[in-house]
C-alpha cells in the first residue's frame, strides 16, 4: 500500500484502502470483470411510473434520529467494531482529518472498491451486523412499527425511478415479523465499482488518519430511523465522516475550511475477498450524532468543456442522495489536476437545499409513497420472497426470486426481530390496506 512519507512522520495509523504504489498509477488500470447477473424468477407484474397514483399529502422526512453504527475491519474473518463504553481507544470511529501543510499533489485513484461492503464481508446474512449494532447500542430497541429496513442505495434507486431517472437495479423483499427488508442484489457480493477515476479515494487516504486502536478499519456504517409518508424506516448508509461539534467553529454557508479544523473522515470501499464464518464483534469508540455527519466530494476546478476555472459543484444528483441519508453537511475539495490547497476545501450546510429539493419534487415523492406502500403490501402477503427489478427506461418488475439469494437475517437474529416486535394486543393483520400478493 502506498503511503506518503509525511503521513508516516505524523504517526498516522491508516487502514489499507486498496491503493497501488505511486509508480503503478502511471499504468492504465485493469478493466473490472463484471460478474454474470443472477437468474430472474417468474415475472408477476409490472409497475409503470406514469400509472402510479399520488399520495394525497405532500410527504417529507421527519423524526430523523441516529440508531446505531459499526465499522468493518480488514481481517480474514468478518469483524466489526461497535461504539460502546471503551472511549479511550476511539477505535469504532471514522478516521481523523489530518491534512498535509500547505497542500499536496496526489496521484489519481487506482484501486478496487466494493459496491456493497456489507454483502461482500458477510454475504450469507448482510443485515446481521446492523441488527447486532442496533441491540448492542440500544438494548430496548423495539422493531414494532418499523415498516421498511433498507440501505440508502435501494431507496435512492426507487426515488430515481419515480423521477424518471434511468438506472438498472435489483433488490429482494423479505418479510420478517411485521417489517419488510429490502436487500440490495448485485451480480455478485464482491462486485467492484467499475471505471474508478478522479482523486476521491486518494484524497481520503492522504488527508485522513485513523485514531489509535484497532488497525485496519475500512468502512463505517450508520443506521438511522425516520418517518416518510406514513411509513417508518430504518436506513443504513456508509458514512464519509463527521465534524466534531466541540471542535467546530461557526461556519456560514460556502465559507472556506480554515486550516486546523478537525474533520473525521471514513474510508470508501476497499475490496478484500468475501469471507464466511461467525461475525466477530468488538466494542470501542463513541456514537456520533446524525447532525455531525458529512458527505465528502472532490471536484476538478477546471471545466474541460468550457476551458474555464470553476468552483461550483452540480447538486442535481448529490442532493437526493443527501436527502435519503439525511446528511446535513457537504464537504467539497476542489483540485487542479490532483493538486489540493487548503483554501479550496469548503464546508457547506445542505439543510435548506435538501428541504427545497423535497418541496420541488413533491409530486414524484407522492408517487414514491404509493409505490413503497404497494411493495410492502405485496411482500407481506406473498408466500415467498419477491424481487424488484428495473432496467433502462422500462417499468418496475415484481418477480419471484430466482437462483440463490442471501436472507436478510440469520435464524437467530430473525427470531429475535420477530420476538422483540410482538406486543400484547397488536393487530394480527399485517396488511391493513387489503393489498393482494402477486
TrEMBL record:
Alphabetical keyword list: Coiled coil
Biased amino acid composition, Low complexity: 1-21
Residues covered by region (Disordered): 1-53, 91-110
Record has Coiled coil as a keyword: yes
Coiled-coil portions: 347-374
PANTHER family tied to this protein: PROTEIN CBG02620 (PTHR35179), START DOMAIN-CONTAINING PROTEIN (PTHR35179:SF2)
UniProt protein name: Geranylgeranyl pyrophosphate synthetase
Annotated source species: Aspergillus ellipticus CBS 707.79
Amino acid at each position: 500500500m502506498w503511503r506518503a512519507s509525511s503521513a508516516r512522520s505524523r504517526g498516522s495509523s491508516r487502514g489499507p484502502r486498496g491503493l497501488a504504489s505511486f509508480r503503478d498509477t502511471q499504468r492504465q488500470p485493469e478493466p473490472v470483470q463484471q460478474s454474470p447477473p443472477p437468474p430472474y424468477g417468474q415475472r408477476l407484474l409490472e409497475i409503470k411510473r406514469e400509472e402510479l397514483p399520488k399520495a394525497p399529502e405532500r410527504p417529507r422526512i421527519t423524526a430523523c434520529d441516529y440508531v446505531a453504527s459499526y465499522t468493518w475491519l480488514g481481517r480474514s474473518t468478518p469483524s466489526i467494531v461497535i461504539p460502546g463504553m471503551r472511549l479511550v481507544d476511539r477505535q469504532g470511529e471514522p478516521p481523523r482529518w489530518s491534512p498535509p501543510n500547505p497542500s499536496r499533489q496526489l496521484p489519481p485513484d487506482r484501486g478496487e472498491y466494493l459496491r456493497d461492503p456489507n454483502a461482500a464481508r458477510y454475504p450469507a446474512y448482510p443485515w446481521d451486523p446492523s441488527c447486532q449494532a442496533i441491540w448492542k447500542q440500544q438494548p430496548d430497541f423495539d422493531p414494532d412499527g418499523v415498516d421498511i429496513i433498507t440501505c440508502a442505495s435501494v431507496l435512492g434507486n426507487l426515488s430515481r425511478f419515480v423521477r424518471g431517472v434511468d438506472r438498472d437495479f435489483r433488490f429482494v423483499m423479505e418479510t420478517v415479523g411485521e417489517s419488510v427488508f429490502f436487500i440490495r442484489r448485485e451480480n455478485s457480493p464482491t462486485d467492484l465499482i467499475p471505471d474508478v477515476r478522479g482523486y476521491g479515494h486518494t484524497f481520503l487516504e492522504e488527508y485522513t488518519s485513523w485514531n489509535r486502536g484497532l488497525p485496519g478499519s475500512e468502512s463505517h456504517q450508520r443506521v438511522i430511523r425516520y418517518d416518510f409518508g406514513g411509513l417508518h424506516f430504518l436506513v443504513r448508509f456508509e458514512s464519509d465522516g463527521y465534524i466534531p461539534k466541540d471542535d467546530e467553529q461557526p461556519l456560514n454557508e460556502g465559507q472556506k475550511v480554515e486550516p486546523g479544523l478537525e474533520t473525521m473522515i471514513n474510508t470508501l470501499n476497499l475490496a478484500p475477498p468475501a469471507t464466511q464464518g461467525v461475525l466477530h464483534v468488538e466494542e470501542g469508540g463513541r456514537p456520533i450524532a446524525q447532525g455531525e455527519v458529512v458527505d465528502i466530494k472532490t471536484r476538478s476546478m477546471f471545466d474541460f468543456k468550457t476551458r474555464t476555472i470553476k468552483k461550483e459543484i452540480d447538486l442535481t444528483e448529490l442532493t437526493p442522495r443527501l436527502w435519503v441519508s439525511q446528511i446535513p453537511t457537504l464537504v467539497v475539495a476542489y483540485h487542479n489536476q490532483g493538486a489540493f490547497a487548503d483554501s479550496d476545501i469548503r464546508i457547506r450546510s445542505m439543510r435548506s437545499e435538501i428541504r427545497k429539493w423535497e418541496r420541488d419534487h413533491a409530486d414524484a415523492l407522492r408517487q414514491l409513497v404509493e409505490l413503497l406502500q404497494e411493495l410492502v403490501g405485496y411482500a407481506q402477503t406473498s408466500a415467498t420472497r419477491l424481487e424488484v427489478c428495473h432496467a433502462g427506461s422500462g417499468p418496475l418488475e415484481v418477480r419471484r426470486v430466482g437462483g440463490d439469494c442471501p436472507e436478510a437475517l440469520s435464524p437467530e437474529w430473525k427470531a429475535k426481530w420477530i420476538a422483540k416486535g410482538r406486543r400484547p394486543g397488536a393487530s394480527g393483520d399485517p396488511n391493513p390496506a387489503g393489498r393482494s400478493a402477486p
